[in-house]
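# nightly structure sweep
# worker-07 picked up a monomer target from the shared queue
# config: single-sequence mode, recycle default, output format = structure tokens
# input follows
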Amino acid sequence: MLAELGHYALVLALSVALIQATIPLLGAWRGDQGWIALARPAALVQCLLVVVAFAALMHAYVTSDFSVLNVATNSHSAKPLLYKISGVWGNHEGSLLLWLLILVLFGAAVAMFGNNLPASFRARVLSVQAMIAVGFLAFVLFTSNPFERLLPAPIDGRGLNPLLQDPGLAFHPPFLYLGYVGFSMAFSFAVAALIEGRVDAAWARWVRPWTLAAWCFLTLGIALGSWWAYYELGWGGWWFWDPVENASFMPWLAGTALLHSAIVVEKRDALKNWTVLLAIVTFSLSLLGTFLVRSGVLTSVHAFATDPARGVFILAFLIVVIAGSLTLYAVRAPAMKGGGLFAPVSREGGLVLNNLLLSTACATVLLGTLYPLFLDALTGDKITVGPPYFNATFGPLMLPALIAMAVGPMLAWKRADILGALQRLKFAIAATLAALFLTLVLAYDGPWMAIPGIALGVWIIAAALEEAAHRLRLFRAPIGESLRRLARSPRSAWGTTFAHAGAGMVIIGIVASSSWQVEKLQVMRTGEQVAVGEYSFKFLGATAIKGPNYDAVRGSFEVRRDGAHVDLMTPESRSYPEPPMETTEAAIRTGWGGDLYAVIGDPTADGAWSTRFYNKPMIHWIWMGCLFMVLGGLVSLSDRRHRVGAPARRNKNAKPLEVAKSVAGE
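# output follows
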């Protein structure tokens, strides 16, 4: 009965979304306040209906209702409760329902907390958001119904993919979708602005918190996925330029550029058309990622294996969204003239350089991801574009962006002096030279490219700290004045400091772990030991164990350093009966210097075991840096200016007294 209730709630949600997509938009065009006011309750009702549908599907999973086809295909009665819950979105139909839930939650958030928006503009935003919801509701109802019945019901289900039965993958998709779908708000704000024909500082202030929230969620989602691949897949890597990994990385790059360009619109009333275009492109890339994952055109550990008919539906929806928004952009953008002239060497100029490099880097990733698909469709030839292409194209583009990232915050608005900015970065330059020298001394035998790589990470971190010290006039003014400046500093500035320092930490983690990694693969018998850098691994044997829904073999390895006991590491090789699959569970020991990583594989005919060990220096800096970047975004999001809203829009024909009253809120 609850399954039918969930299905009926989706049907009602589609009806409400159709009303929300049309009536408030017409009301804003006609100036009808009654029709405009309909947007808010419609968004809330639509959200409530989708919540009911999602709760109905989750109830079916938790209670193991195998009369629901989706549950029978993707769950099992022996699964732990966490994986029954995560099984809701561990499949095509359920993940689409999660996407839809997050979409309507963002719309409801604008309806409830968007009181600083003009009523007509909010109605347009919610109407555009409802148009997106109509597409996904139709997709769910007509091609991907999660409530389809299976009669007679089987005794038990087939079980969730064992690779997804992991805490990291339980939380990775929700955060990733919060980022993907969160960019729909930037898209809706951009399209609403194009319909209204107006982009200004107030619009930039309105759109920034929603974009920033989506960027934080997507950053955290990508970091969780990378961490999961590192410890779960057993190959010791954290990123492989997989097409589905790229599908999440591309909107992150575009969203990062969007965040920076919106600052220029808000501060200098420039880059209006470019910022609107970035908002459209960012969400379009999110939809492209949805198409790649669900169309069946890719084979990946991350992709859902679905029939091509669903891919055709998503492709058609993608074309409608992109073509429609870009057509509107082509018609309305020329009328939106920007102001705020600035010199090439200025804060604005630095942000433009940031945008150009990020956008070009995103384009190279897009080309490398789609080229094999186009070639296969046109000629039938199958090729793979792997890490060598991306490393050779993406890295050189990001290098100047990372170098400039440290200098940009030191530049003045409108016109700046590059030499003056570098003089204010004396400490950062000294720290970079010291890091270059120390790395050269400690790693004199190479690899040589790692030496400037570490220095680059130090340059970014030191410059972020020195910019914060410059803002507080630390050591250049009495401590009381520095404390007063600290109390008055906007949180968005501190968010920039944390995010930029986090980026430097990521660079150091990538360079150190990839340059000085030690890897050993061998076959071992009980009692044998292997040296891995400064450590030795002694194989103590393997024992069979039984988990809640799997059988496993657990290996025991004593780790020593200079003869002293360090740790006992116990990796596992697991075998799942439903569905049948073998997985590895790496044992990882994290220390200040890096990670020790152990994997046990298959036995040989003579009773030995295949094993794999890694020593990965400073690899945990990658995820620590990502957390610092997310922390920076959250600190910026808590800025008071985002809570109090944007400055009031001024009517050019209004008298000065009327403008003053408008700003005062009278």
